Amino acid sequence: MHNTEKRMGSTIYIGFVFLLMYAPLFYLMFYSFNAGGDMTNFSGFTFEHYQALFEDTRLMTFILNTFIVALLSALIATIIGTLGAIAIYYYRSNRNRQAILNLNSVLMVTPDVMMGASFLLMFSFLLKFEFGFTTVLLSHIAFNVPIVVLMVLPRLYEMNPSMITAAQDLGANQNQILSRIILPSIKSGVLAGYFMAFTYSLDDFAVTFFITGNGFSTLSVEVYSRARTGVSLEINALSTLMFLLALLLVFGYYSLRVGEQRRAALRVRQARGGK
């Protein structure tokens, strides 16, 4: 009886938390179909705000910019972060390895405003870059690399080191070990790192706000500038589509993880059956 009450209490608490988080989203999504021009009275069902969204060439340009930066920065950060995680894994000194991980974690918890201001100073006075696509891309790569490292490193520690030793005994070189043993073993961590980096880049505002310029901007900065004059239902429609995209990405990543776990379980059963 006591356990049943605890489970019921946990269910109610979790449901309440999810209600607080998702109620504003569903409220916003509901009014994206409102034929009226505000979010006070629902006067009828319409798709005109979605039509207006796709007819807004300025906003479409910023959406394209956002996805280009997110895809490129996530890809480059995944490559750099994966190689960095492998380098940390092979680091012989535990003290130095821990120091590097601590520095990596500091970048994760650094406030976005502070990071954006530091990039602003670096590109303005040290590198003297012209603000635009390049500065935004480099900044997104920089704050995505630590995320990838933290996603990949646990997969490396889960890897069976005897496979690497056996490959070395059989004469495999470093490139063969990397491509045939290490990367296949940490594939799920690499994919997770890419998805996380893509998501962080997609919705970043604070860092991008500091280093955008010359007509180049991203969706979050544009939405902020429009919201200061009042949120239109066109933004509601955009937010609805972005939410559905996020759900699709989560479902895709979950499907990949489930498929990988099933294949791993199948290999274990086959190995036991072979014995």
Automatic annotation (TrEMBL):
It is found in: Cell membrane. Its main location: membrane. Residues 63-253 form the ABC transmembrane type-1 domain. It comes from the Bacteria. This is Spermidine/putrescine transport system permease protein. One of its GO terms (cellular component) is plasma membrane. PROSITE patterns: ABC_TM1 (PS50928). It is a multi-pass membrane protein. InterPro entries: Bact_Polyamine_Transport, MetI-like, MetI-like_sf. The keyword Transmembrane applies. Keywords: Cell membrane, Membrane, Transmembrane, Transmembrane helix, Transport.
